[in-house]
C-alpha cells in the first residue's frame, strides 16, 4: 500500500472540537467487513451486535496533563512544553517537545506556574523525540509530580484548535483509565459510559484490560510513499497473564472478541501467537499495521473516524478491508459524521 491511497478530503467543519453531550450517544457507523453492508446507529446500540460471553478488550492507560506553558528566563518569551515521557524520576528528567523550538538552547531555563514555582533546564537538544529537560526541584517526588501536573493542561489534540477547558479533564479520559502514561487518549473508549458498562454486565458480555501508553506517534507526518519504509514510534505496553487466560478462553469457545480502539489492536497484534492466542508481555511495541494484514484473534473493532494519511486510518483499513472502510469514510463525510477523538464511532464486525 502507498501513502497516497489514504488521502481524502475532510471538511474542517467535520472535525469535532467538543465531545458529545453524553459519552454513549455519539453516532456509530457499522461496517460489515464480509459484505460491505453499512448501518447508521447510535453508539449505545453497540451491544446489539454482541452476545453473552463475548469479550471486549479495553486500553486502561490514563492521560496525564502533558501540556505546559512557561516563560523563558531573561526574555520572558512564552514557550509551550509538551511532556512526552518521564526518563528518570530521581533526577526529574523528561523527554519533551518545545514550541517555538528555535528559541530554546541547551542551558536555557524555563519558569512555570503563576508564581514561577517550577523551574526547568534544557540539557539536551539531540534526542529523536525532541529535547530532554530537567526540572529543578528539591522536595519529595510525589510533591513534585503533584505540582507538575497541577500546572499542566489536558493535552487535547491540536486539530481541535482551542485551549483545553475544564470539561476536557473528564471527557478526554476513559472512565476506566487507571495506569498513567498516555499523552493521547484511546479515543474509541471515550464512548463508554458507566451505564453502558453496566448494561454489558447485565447482558453477560465480559471485558478486560491491556495497557498501551498512547504517544504522539499517531500524529507524526509520514514522509515516505512506500509504507514498508515507515517506522512508527515505540509505545510502552503491558499484557498480563490474567487477561491472556480470559481472552484465550473466549477465543477457544468461539466467542466474538472486540478490540476497543486501534491501540488495543496494536497491543494484541504485537503479542498474538500463530494459533491466534494472546501471550503476556511487558515492554515496548513499534508494530505498524497497514493493509493487507491477517488478524487471527479479534473479529470486531471499535474505532473513531481518523485523519487523512494517519496510521490509525491504516489500521482500520487493515482490519475492515481497504475498499469497505474507505467507502464507509465517503458515506460518513456525506452524512456529516464527526471526525477525531471527540467524534463519532465506527464498529467493524463480520
How is this fold's topology laid out?
Elements: E1 27-32, E2 38-42, E3 55-59, E4 61-63, E5 67-72, E6 78-88, E7 93-99, E8 109-112, E9 118-127, E10 130-136, H1 141-151, H2 166-171, E11 179-182, H3 194-203, E12 206-212, E13 235-239, H4 241-252, E14 257-260, H5 262-270, E15 281-285, E16 300-304, H6 311-320, H7 322-334, E17 345-349
Parallel strand pairs: 1-17, 3-12, 3-14, 4-11, 14-16
Antiparallel strand pairs: 1-2, 5-6, 5-8, 6-7, 7-10, 8-9, 9-10, 12-13, 13-15, 16-17
What do you see in this structure?
The chain contains seven helices and 17 strands. Helix 6 (311-320) packs across helix 7. The protein is globular, with a radius of gyration of 21 Å. It has helices at residues 141-151, 166-171, 194-203, 241-252, 262-270, 311-320, 322-334, and strands spanning 27-32, 38-42, 55-59, 61-63, 67-72, 78-88, 93-99, 109-112, 118-127, 130-136, 179-182, 206-212, 235-239, 257-260, 281-285, 300-304, 345-349. Strands 2-1-17-16-14-3-12-13-15 form a nine-stranded mixed β-sheet, with helices on one face. The relative contact order is 0.21. It has two domains: 3-63 and 169-349, QueA-like (3-Layer(aba) Sandwich); 67-152, QueA-like (Thrombin, subunit H). It is of the alpha/beta class.
Amino acid at each position: 500500500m502507498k501513502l497516497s491511497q489514504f488521502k481524502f478530503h475532510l471538511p474542517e467543519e467535520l472535525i469535532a472540537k467538543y465531545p458529545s453531550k453524553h459519552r454513549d450517544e455519539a453516532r456509530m457507523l457499522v461496517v460489515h467487513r464480509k459484505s460491505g453492508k453499512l448501518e447508521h446507529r447510535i453508539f449505545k446500540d453497540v451491544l446489539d451486535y454482541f452476545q453473552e460471553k463475548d469479550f471486549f478488550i479495553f486500553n486502561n492507560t490514563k492521560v496525564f496533563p502533558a501540556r505546559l506553558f512557561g516563560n523563558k528566563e531573561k526574555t520572558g518569551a512564552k514557550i509551550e512544553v509538551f511532556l512526552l515521557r518521564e526518563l528518570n524520576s530521581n533526577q526529574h528528567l523528561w523527554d519533551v517537545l518545545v514550541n517555538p523550538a528555535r528559541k530554546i538552547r541547551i542551558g536555557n531555563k524555563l519558569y512555570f506556574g503563576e508564581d514561577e514555582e517550577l523551574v526547568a533546564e534544557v540539557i539536551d537538544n539531540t534526542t529523536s523525540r525532541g529535547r530532554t529537560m530537567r526540572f529543578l526541584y528539591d522536595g519529595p517526588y510525589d510533591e513534585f509530580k503533584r505540582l507538575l501536573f497541577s500546572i499542566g493542561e489536558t493535552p487535547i489534540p491540536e486539530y481541535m484548535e482551542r485551549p483545553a477547558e475544564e470539561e476536557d479533564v473528564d471527557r478526554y479520559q476513559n472512565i476506566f483509565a487507571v495506569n498513567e502514561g498516555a499523552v493521547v487518549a484511546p479515543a474509541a473508549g471515550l464512548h463508554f459510559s458507566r451505564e453502558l458498562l453496566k448494561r454489558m454486565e447485565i447482558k453477560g458480555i465480559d471485558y478486560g484490560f491491556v495497557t498501551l501508553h498512547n504517544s504522539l506517534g499517531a500524529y507524526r507526518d509520514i514522509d515516505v510513499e512506500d509504507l514498508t519504509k515507515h517506522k512508527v514510534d515505540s509505545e510502552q505496553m503491558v499484557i498480563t497473564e490474567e487477561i491472556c487466560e480470559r481472552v484465550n478462553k473466549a477465543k477457544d469457545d468461539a466467542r466474538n472478541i472486540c478490540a476497543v480502539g486501534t491501540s488495543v489492536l496494536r497491543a494484541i497484534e504485537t503479542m498474538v501467537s500463530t494459533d491466534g492466542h494472546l501471550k503476556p508481555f511487558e515492554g515496548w511495541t513499534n508494530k505498524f499495521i497497514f493493509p493487507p494484514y491477517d488478524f487471527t484473534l479479534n473479529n470486531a473493532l471499535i474505532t473513531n473516524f481518523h485523519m487523512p494519511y494517519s496510521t490509525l486510518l491504516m489500521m482500520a483499513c487493515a482490519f475492515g478491508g481497504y475498499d469497505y472502510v474507505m467507502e464507509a469514510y465517503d458515506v460518513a463525510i456525506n452524512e456529516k459524521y464527526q471526525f477525531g477523538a471527540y467524534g463519532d464511532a465506527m464498529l467493524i464486525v463480520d
